[in-house]
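Dear colleague,

Thank you for sharing your sequence with our group. We've completed the structure prediction you requested, and as agreed, I am returning the results in plain text so they can be pasted directly into your records. Please verify that the sequence below matches your submission; if there's any discrepancy, let me know and we will rerun it promptly.
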Amino acid sequence: MIALERAVWPAGARLDESGVLSIGGIRAADLAGEFGTPVFVLDEQDFRARARLFRDAFESAFAEIGSSAEVYYAGKSFLCTAVARWVVEEGLRLDTCTGGELAVAARAGIDGPRLGLHGNNKSDAEIARAVDMRVGRIVLDSLAEVERVADAGAAAGRRVPVMVRVTTGVHAGGHEYISTAHEDQKFGLSIADGSAMTALRAVLARPELELLGVHTHIGSQIQDAAAFEVSARKLLALRAQLYAATGTLLPELDLGGGFGIAYTAEDSPVDITELARALADVVEQVSDELELAVPRISIEPGRAIAGPSTVTLYEVGVVKPVTVGEGEVRVRTYVSVDGGMSDNIRPALYGAEYTARLANRSSGKVKVRSRVVGKHCESGDIVIPDIDLPADVAPGDLLAVPATGAYGRSMASNYNLVARPPVVAVKDGAARVIVRRETEDDLLATDVG
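Please find the predicted structure tokens below.
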């Protein structure tokens, strides 16, 4: 067998002796032939195994210090009814941030107490829906939301469980757009300026609200445990301050998500079991120092479960060598595929890096500097700006781009009126569509003329 970089590809991805890629026991060419391209191919067993890894690692680590941990799958990374059911079947809860995501959870039959609702600008309708569904927690993101959610609870005649999202001043991750705990951004309430404490007191003043704890999120694609540990210390200190001031000891801290994955061989994601143990050690140590009971913990991985489980298959179209100096020096070869920024906006949005390989055959040709680009009318429609691909890549070949399960389909658009690709789940040699390909009828359905 020819080896794949295991950290980058799903567990069910294999190369045979001829260099042909298979996922979940099905050859890439057969998947493309049956479902067309572009297509998101999701390895169900890989997805479920990653969900169990988070559940087991955090439950075990926090049980050792006399506490407990809940894992909320972050639906924003990728959500459909099948995935929502898998998440719950593997013992996780589901975090949502819009009415649409709540609708998917409801369609999947997920009980309200297993859900959470986030969002910096929740509508009254979204809040009312969450209250009606009896979601397990609504994460308050502003002082105004304290009153709005309390009023919604009063109107429904029930007490609403809430958390307060705070900014700790700790931020981590690859790009400013995905770093979310520094002070100058739209999420949460600052510990430093006192607004977090003000919000906590405001919640306690409303009997319609049940204060579960505080929540933070420090960024995305984080590959170092140190930032999580610093953030946990700040949350524990805030918990102690509230207890000293009001006598209320918060039962729960949510440490957020943002756990990084390997998009290329150069990435080194943090080991989840080691991360869970490190965070448990910090929570226990700081709680002992503050002479307070250890809280229960929740976390919200999304990318780290969905991302590595999925591979996008594209068909190559135009292959265009670009040269300078009267054609004497090749700059690179442009390899155009039949998707692009409509199914993966991350490279254009914040320079996210990916890798790719031929999926339908092997090649003994020398590799040349290439740029994988999409079919959209934007010069920035680039999937991979620089990669070495075989010199004989040709129209009709298949390219496989791994680690596309998070924020690929979920951020997809219809730019240039291109239909969004399907998501096909593979397992034990069988494939099934869990999100169908859009059609021209879908594109025209909202155009009322």
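Summary note from our side: The CA atoms of residues 52 and 162 lie 26 Å apart.

Kind regards,
the structure core
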